Amino acid sequence: MIWVPVLVGSAVCYALKALGFVVPQRFLEQPRVAALVGMFPVALLAALLAVVTLGDGQSLVLDARVAAVFAAGVALTLRAPFLVVVLVGAGTAALLRAIGLG
Predict the structure, then answer these.
(1) Confidence bin at 83 (pLDDT 50/70/90)
(2) The pLDDT value given to residue 47
(3) Which of 95, 27, 46, 41 is nearest to 67 (CA)?
(4) Residues 23-50 pLDDT 10s
(5) pTM beyond 0.85
(6) How many CB atoms lie within 10 A of CB 97?
(7) What is the four-CA torsion angle of 45, 64, 55, 71, rounded to 10 degrees?
């Protein structure tokens, strides 16, 4: 029965969100807390990217997705526009899969 964990998870998320409204403002204005809260989105997106890129069920997979993310990272480092970054990543994955490496 999948609904029990889904409902429990939803209740926990709602409780955490509600808890955010009762935290004193002076606590949130501390430099350490502000810096930590600013890092959360980056950490969550990096974790999501790692899971989507490297995961396949219960196993670790190194295929064209890894090379595509690396190529897109290089394009980002070179300050390419976002559309170019996406095209470089997609093109890398497509090329590697076309030659049978992914």
Answers:
(1) very high
(2) 93
(3) 95
(4) 888 888 899 988 888 898 999 999 999 9
(5) no
(6) 14
(7) -20
pLDDT in tens, 47-62: 999 998 888 888 888 8
- DSSP for the chain reads --HHHHHHHHHHHHHHHHHHHHS-HHHHTSHHHHHHHHHHHHHHHHHHHHHHHHEETTEE--SHHHHHHHHHHHHHHTT--HHHHHHHHHHHHHHHHHTT--
Distance of alpha carbon 65 from alpha carbon 84, whole angstroms: 17
Rounded to 5 degrees, φ, ψ at 61 are: -125, 130
Would you say 33 and 20 are in contact if contact means Cβ atoms under 8 Å apart? Answer: no
**Is the distance from CB of 67 to CB of 99 less than 8 angstroms?**
no
* Residue whose pair of structure tokens reads 């090379």 in the numeric block: 67
d(CA 29, CA 61): 42
